[in-house]
Design a protein that fits this description.
With 386 residues, the chain is an alpha/beta fold. It is 32% helix and 23% strand. It binds nicotinamide-adenine-dinucleotide. Nicotinamide-adenine-dinucleotide binds next to helix 2.
Length: 386
């Protein structure tokens, strides 16, 4: 048996892969999450980070020094970066309000895009992004790294195995008792949306991906900001006191919704940056033949909050099966997110996390905001993608 075949079975013998090109990569927005992108790009043997852009003078240069990206040229805007560099790919790591603009401009410049979550702020922006994606013929993947975790993948495998039967009810969400971020996350002018976009999108993706992303039909949404606007629950950051952060806070710190999905599925959702409670509860997927309990999790780092439980009837007896927590193997979630994006470019697709799915994630977030503002249930109106 050849070494190549053996290495598929024997732990410890690593299968070497060959890399036949060098990806010239840019990073737009050199804030906090860009650090994980830079680290992961550095771990890829076939990537050269050639450009960095940030609106804040000196920020991209400081980032270049910190991460030793000596071949990267620095720019004060994404448009300058796109005009001056021949890029194969960019990571869009800006705050939510500039996701759409940076992504559309990059696609129109013929560059493949790894876009950080949430996809954007409104459903209209999501449709604009998807039109640009189609017209460009380039690859666009949305940065949901939990998709790379084996436990998150197991949720989908269980649902798709049919063991739960037809799904009719889902409860999901997550939250923190105290965990309001600061900086650019708490103002509409940069973040657009609060806990909903920051962590809510992950909980939605965890369950909607498992059940095949059915189209949302109606939404009754609620949002509030009792904690973020109260200096007692605020934190100081580099540029602001707790009082100032409370004053500038104008996004949601809690959201809840009742969503009707195509196929007769009800989705009961809640998410929180702060509340007088440790968790709003486990995620539940109820089907006609069985049910799955996913212990409370914030999802973003791909962890489940304990072993999942599968409830089924076997020969008339009510059984509970514990699903052991699976260890993550190989490189970290971020490396896998970056690698799967690069491999998809190489192979001509499909995108690891396609916009065709995340469009519905964004539609729910958008409809929660609109329903909350209207104070009543609304029908989800999806813009045409033509
Ligand atoms: N995947 C994850 O685990 C994860 C974790 C944290 C944040 N995020 C997402 O990453 C995004 C950024 O978060 P962050 O914490 O890094 O924010 P940040 O505020 O630290 O950084 C954003 C940077 O983008 C820059 N910027 C904005 N518009 C720009 C433009 N047009 N051209 C160039 N630079 C521009 C800003 O000046 C800022 O420095 C958010 O959408 C957030 O939801 C993802």
């Amino acid at each position: 048996m050849s070494d190549t075949v053996l290495s598929n079975f024997t732990p410890g013998i690593r299968q070497e892969r060959s890399y036949h090109r060098t990806f010239k990569v840019g990073i737009i927005g050199t804030g906090w999450i860009a650090e994980s992108h830079a680290e992961s790009y550095k771990n890829q043997p076939d990537v050269e980070v050639v450009g960095l852009a940030d609106l804040i003078p000196g920020k991209a240069e400081a980032f270049r020094e910190r991460y030793g990206l000596k071949n990267a040229r620095c720019y004060l805007s994404h448009t300058e970066l796109l005009a001056n560099e021949q890029l194969d790919a960019v990571s869009v790591c800006t705050y939510n309000m500039t996701h759409a603009e940076c992504t559309i401009d990059a696609l129109r410049a013929g560059v493949n895009v790894l876009l950080e979550k949430p996809m954007c702020v409104t459903i209209e922006e999501a449709a604009d992004i998807m039109r640009a994606e189609r017209e460009s013929g380039k690859l666009l993947s949305v940065g949901f790294q939990p998709r790379m975790d084996p436990n998150m993948q197991m949720i989908k495998k269980i649902v798709q195995s049919g063991v739960l039967g037809e799904i009719y009810y889902i409860q999901t969400g997550g939250g923190r008792r105290r965990g309001i971020p600061n900086s650019t996350f708490i103002e509409k002018k940069t973040a657009g949306i609060g806990a909903l976009g920051d962590i809510g999108c992950y909980s939605l993706d965890m369950v909607l991906n498992a059940v095949g992303y059915p189209k949302p039909l109606t939404v009754t949404g609620y949002t509030s900001n009792f904690f973020g606007t109260n200096p007692m629950y605020q934190y100081p950051d580099a540029g602001h006191t707790a009082q100032q952060n409370a004053e500038r806070f104008d996004v949601d710190d809690f959201a809840a919704a009742f969503v009707r999905l195509e196929g007769g599925i009800i989705l009961d959702f809640r998410i929180s940056w702060a509340m007088h409670l440790d968790t709003p509860g486990d995620s539940l997927i109820l089907g006609k033949k069985g049910a799955l309990r996913i212990p409370s999790t914030e999802c973003w780092n791909g962890t489940v909050g304990g072993p999942m439980k599968l409830y089924t009837d076997v020969a008339g007896a009510q059984t509970v099966t514990e699903i052991p927590i699976l260890p993550s193997t190989g490189s970290g979630l971020f490396d896998k997110k970056i690698r799967s994006f690069l491999d998809a470019i190489d192979q001509g697709g499909p995108a690891p996390v396609p916009t065709s799915q995340i469009f519905y994630n964004q539609a729910i977030i958008d409809a929660i905001c609109k329903s909350a503002a209207a104070g009543k249930e609304i029908e989800v109106s999806l813009p045409s993608l033509d």
